[in-house]
# Entry
Amino acid sequence: MAYKSQIVAGVLLVVLTIPAVVAQTVESQSGPIRVETLAEGLEHPWGLAFLPDQRMLVTERPGRLRIVSPAGDISEPVTGIPEVFARGQGGLLDVALDPEFTSNKLVYLSFAEPGEGGASTAVARGQLEDVALKNVEVVFRQQPKVEGGNHFGSRLAFSTDDKLFITMGERFKFDPAQDLSNHLGTIARIHPDGSVPEDNPFVDRQGAEPEIWSYGHRNIQAAAIHPETGQLWEIEHGPKGGDELNIAEAGRNYGWPLVSWGRHYDDRDIPNPPTQPKLAQSIYQWTPVIAPSGMTFYTGDQFPEWRGNILVGGLVAQAIVRLSQDGEEITEEERIKLGARIRDVVQGAEGAVYALTNQTNGKILRLTPEDYRDR
# Structure
């Protein structure tokens, strides 16, 4: 393989030249799917967001943000990225565009931030200019910072009223997920500038962190806004079993570590969720786990049979997991095997499905129906 440089849309791109498009065909219930390797050579890519011109912003966990063209050309690292804690599961994580991106050019990044006491999940935003983030500011910091390299979360999702949801993990500390005086094991809801919405559920409770939307979560690495209801749906990693799909409702307690469908890693039992009915109940769970990371509600035209379905990245499953639902009930599950750990799943404007593989030589995969070009 060879590299060359070129200027595309004012951005210096380092182009990976490969002999031909790498593609394979996988089977699915809706027919054969063409899986193309659009780009490769990314180091543990974590999050993907489309720019209005269909270029992609892609994070790499060691702390780099890249711009990838629709043809798969990869830019030099974007400058202006905050310092990240790139240990264990930490690093540069999700990326999202401001709802008013076309006018303000703001990009949001979640990342593991080092500091006194260890590290915690944080969110920064800056204005994208060519291959630089300008005027970068941190708008949210998970409190407190603690030692260790596990369970940072984190996905970003803008609601229909332009509030920013930030999903987090409990940093593998267990009990703090039940304590409203910290952000560990919670979902936060903020205005884009970091200020706290007045209607957050704990904003007036003494001793509670006002950004908290819901709590009792373990490690949320998948989240998306339902296109019809506007609700936040999230999927979090269970321990030994018990990955959970939840609808994140204001003020609800989702039970970790009091209950779980899984067991501790040392095989100790954990009470099942129905034993505490006052806690929020998951609407679906996986045992054994799929290790969920990234999700989207499919609304495109290329896969008409999938409209309204949830597409989930599976790390352990090495697949895109497709879920059909009827309201809040999951009615069908299909696993589209891709032979790689899938970190994120995103729908493109043209209706294709894009997936990131969690590898040292990470790839962007593009999925289209095998017969799409013949339609």
The two ends are 34 Å apart (CA to CA). The helical segments are 101-104. The mean pLDDT is 94.
